[in-house]
């Protein structure tokens, strides 16, 4: 069954005013003049927390060089990225993505008119319309339902192929991919692949009372399929929950704040986040989580002086 997708709040403060000569624009002009003269602008020497319109504190990524080694003794929960952390990137790029690309037409054709697929198509239509308005290349307009099943599916397949090729991390694509993969997992055409050290670590953490969660840009349904059908069997019994981009993207600190609120520990520093991507690590650190970066075969290189502690296996980190 498709997971409900709550809207992700994008509320932010007003940064610019359209009214010429207003107090705000005059202040900006005075600041820019001072900056041009090499003088500090009024108010800029006193750091103050940015306030959002909804009253929530804005979380911003900070340079990782300011971070120290992770304090692991107080960890009560682990949040795991999948691609490049629990599983080889090649499993995603060489198995999952091609399976979805090669089977999306068959899936849409077989399930056209079902509630689930109607929901998937509605989300894709909305994404395509947004992409067209933003001038994204390779986007194909989706004809209305009245045009008939085949033209609609042709357009959807063209868009999905372009989205997969561009490796876009968008909820509409991930949701549909999850539904295509479900067929593959159920028929055992595909199996979830995890590194050898992952199952024993999950088992050990579970036995010691540490709660483990997954946070991936893949849909929660896809995550459950991967961990429920691995070459080591069903690993979901060691997992307490799954997060996807409905809590926010993985490079936003706010997403990790939301995860902390859901995980049920008193402090964000009681959560250890493992990922292979520096920007995700920096965002999680900015939200107060402890972070380790996973170095696995085939992962992309990290920036120099990234400042995070790295691991090559889950064995013995907790
Ligand atoms: Mg990753």
From TrEMBL:
Species in which this protein is naturally found: Setaria viridis (Green bristlegrass)
Identification of the protein by name: 2,3-diketo-5-methylthio-1-phosphopentane phosphatase
Q: Could you mention a single GO BP entry for this protein?
A: L-methionine salvage from methylthioadenosine
Q: Give the Pfam families listed for this entry.
A: Hydrolase
NCBIfam families listed in its UniProt record: enolase-ppase
InterPro entries the record matches: Enolase-ppase_E1, HAD-like_sf, HAD_sf
Under Gene Ontology molecular function, one entry of this record is:
magnesium ion binding
Tagged with keyword Cytoplasm: no
The UniProt keywords, alphabetically, are: Amino-acid biosynthesis, Hydrolase, Magnesium, Metal-binding, Methionine biosynthesis
Chain segments carrying region Disordered:
34-71
């Amino acid at each position: 069954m498709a997971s409900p997708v709550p809207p992700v709040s994008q509320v932010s403060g007003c940064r610019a005013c359209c009214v010429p000569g207003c107090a705000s624009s005059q202040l900006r002009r005075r600041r820019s003049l001072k900056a041009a003269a090499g003088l500090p602008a009024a108010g800029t020497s006193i750091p103050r927390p940015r306030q959002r319109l909804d009253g929530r504190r804005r979380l911003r990524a900070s340079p990782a060089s300011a971070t120290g080694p992770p304090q692991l003794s107080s960890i009560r929960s682990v949040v795991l990225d999948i691609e490049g952390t629990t599983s080889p990137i090649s499993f995603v790029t060489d198995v999952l993505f091609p399976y979805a690309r090669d089977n999306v037409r068959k899936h849409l054709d077989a399930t056209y008119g079902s509630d689930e697929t109607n929901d998937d198509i509605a989300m894709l239509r909305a994404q395509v319309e947004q992409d067209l308005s933003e001038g994204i290349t390779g986007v194909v307009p989706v004809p209305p339902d009245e045009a008939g099943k085949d033209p609609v599916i042709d357009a959807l397949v063209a868009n999905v192929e372009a989205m997969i090729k561009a490796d876009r991390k968008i909820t509409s694509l991930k949701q549909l991919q999850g539904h295509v993969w479900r067929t593959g997992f159920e028929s055992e055409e595909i199996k979830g692949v995890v590194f050898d050290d992952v199952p024993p670590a999950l088992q050990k953490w579970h036995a010691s009372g540490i709660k483990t969660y997954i946070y991936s840009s893949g849909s929660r349904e896809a995550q459950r399929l991967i961990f429920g059908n691995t070459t080591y069997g069903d690993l979901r019994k060691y997992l307490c929950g799954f997060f996807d981009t409905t809590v926010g993207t993985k490079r936003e600190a706010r997403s990790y704040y939301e995860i902390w609120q859901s995980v049920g520990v008193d402090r964000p520093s009681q959560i250890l986040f493992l990922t292979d991507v520096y920007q995700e690590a920096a965002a999680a650190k900015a939200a107060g989580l402890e972070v380790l970066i996973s170095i696995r075969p085939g992962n992309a290189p990290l920036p120099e002086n990234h400042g995070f502690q790295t691991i090559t296996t889950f064995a013995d980190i907790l």
